[in-house]
Write a structure and sequence with these properties.
heterodimer, A: Rna Polymerase Sigma Factor, Chain: A, 10 helices, B: eight-stranded antiparallel beta sheet, 21% strand
Chain lengths: 184, 251
């Protein structure tokens, strides 16, 4: 409402305000999704994940004029973050830390863990490539084609990774299912 | 469709991306193959469980958002405009022209324009950008806020409330370097901000400013009373001046 009043066809200042407002409206609401993905997939501390998300959003802001209104902003942001991460990874030339080590230790005591924790632990045991596709396609809800574009792999590769990831989860969760109260 | 073909198609099917022909083929196979049906049903439960496990806690991204917005604000708008090389000269000429025109369109009837502008900026940031999290919302928390910030003034909110408006939230902010309380009222005409503070002992009350930016439709009107000073901000259509006059009288 307020921005409607500010809008004016006259000049760049209101255009700049619109530009910033539009970015805040369409891009910033996805910050939590980006942060969740960065924390789960890349491991490390929350501060590391926040730094990556900040870098992602500022990169997106600087190139926001290239974003096509009406297209999937969330997918665009994830593509930027995954690219940024690849660049960081190449610079560091080292593997990211494996997340959820502490929780893995608890797997030997299934009676102490909840159903969601069981799934988290099984998920953490997947390879990074399998975690990536499951997180993007299943948790974040991206289409297979979008995931393929983000990861720069063919759609068939995404589908086969999803298939293998699900098969591994089925195997890992089966014993828990048989002994657990609720199961899957 | 056989079992191997189903494994290939399962990812698309589970994602809801199979076309009608593939969906029918998958469902026909599932009807005749208990093993594949069991696997696919397990996959669906695992997918749902994974979503639940990953989405049950929303990470707090407010710190990142604040940092990003702060860095966004560092980039001047004109740098982005001039980033398009062919437009630089034209944009510069336009900028000078429009700043000149806009300047003439601002009718500042009285002093304290800076405070009024800071109030409009705060109104925009807090109500449009919506990045603040430290509001005290209407009800007990806002009552506690008022009691703490303006002790001995139980009727204060009633005095500054626009007709037909209800208090939505309140927080402290800074206009210039001075702390103000920022009240937000919901009115039939939209959100109205009232910024106010107590006049310090010995302080000379400033004259109320009224600022009207016709091209952008922003309205700000200041008010002053023996004990309080402040400003009312709203978009065009909100009678900021009369609301400010009402506040000055009621306070």
């Amino acid at each position: 409402m307020w921005i409607q009043a500010i809008r004016s066809p006259v000049f760049e200042l209101p255009m700049a305000l619109d530009h910033a407002h539009e970015f805040e409206r369409v891009a910033l609401p996805h910050a939590a999704n980006l942060l969740r993905y960065a924390m789960h997939i890349y491991g490390g501390t929350k501060a590391d994940a926040e730094d990556l998300v900040q870098e992602t959003l500022l990169t997106a802001w600087r190139s926001f004029s290239q974003f096509k209104a009406g297209t999937n902003c969330k997918a665009w942001l994830f593509r930027i973050m995954i690219n940024s991460r690849y660049k960081q990874f190449r610079r560091a030339s080292s593997r990211p830390e494996e997340p959820l080590v502490e929780e893995e230790r608890n797997l030997s005591r299934p009676e102490n863990i909840s159903r969601t924790a069981e799934i988290r632990i099984a998920f953490a045991k997947l390879s990074p490539e399998h975690q990536e596709v499951m997180q993007l396609a299943v948790v974040e809800g991206f289409a297979i084609r979008e995931v393929a574009e983000m990861l720069k792999v063919p759609a068939g590769t995404v589908m086969s990774r999803l298939s293998r990831a699900r098969a591994q989860l089925r195997t890992m969760l089966k014993p828990v299912r048989l002994s657990g109260e609720e199961g899957l | 469709m056989n079992c191997d073909e189903l494994k290939n198609a399962a990812s698309r099917y589970l994602a809801g991306e199979s076309d009608e022909g593939e969906s029918v083929a998958v469902e026909n196979h599932l009807a005749s193959c208990a093993a594949c049906a069991a696997d696919l049903a397990t996959d669906q439960r695992i997918d749902a469980g994974l979503r639940e496990a990953m989405l049950e806690e929303e990470p707090d991204a407010s710190a990142v958002i604040r940092r990003v917005v702060a860095r966004m604000e560092v980039v001047p708008w004109w740098r982005r405009v001039f980033a398009v090389a062919p437009m630089r000269i034209a944009a510069l000429a336009s900028a000078l022209l429009v700043v000149s025109v806009a300047g003439r369109q601002l009718y500042v009837h009285e002093v304290e324009k800076g405070i009024a502008l800071a109030a409009t900026n705060d109104h925009y940031r807090d109500l449009v950008v919506l990045k603040r999290t430290d509001w005290s919302y209407s009800g007990e928390s806002s009552a506690q806020f008022v009691q703490s910030a303006f002790p001995g003034n139980p009727g204060l909110v009633r005095s500054i409330a626009p007709a037909g408006g209800s208090l939505e939230k309140v927080r402290f902010c800074h206009l210039g370097k001075t702390q103000y309380a920022h009240f937000v009222f919901q009115t039939p005409e939209g959100e109205v901000s009232v910024f106010m503070r107590t006049i310090a002992p010995g302080e000379r009350p400033y004259q109320a400013a009224e600022l009207h930016d016709r091209s952008h439709g922003l309205e700000v009107a200041g008010f002053t009373s023996p004990d309080f000073v402040g400003a009312v901000v709203g978009h065009e259509g909100v009678p900021a001046k009369s609301l400010a006059d009402h506040a000055a009288t009621a306070l």
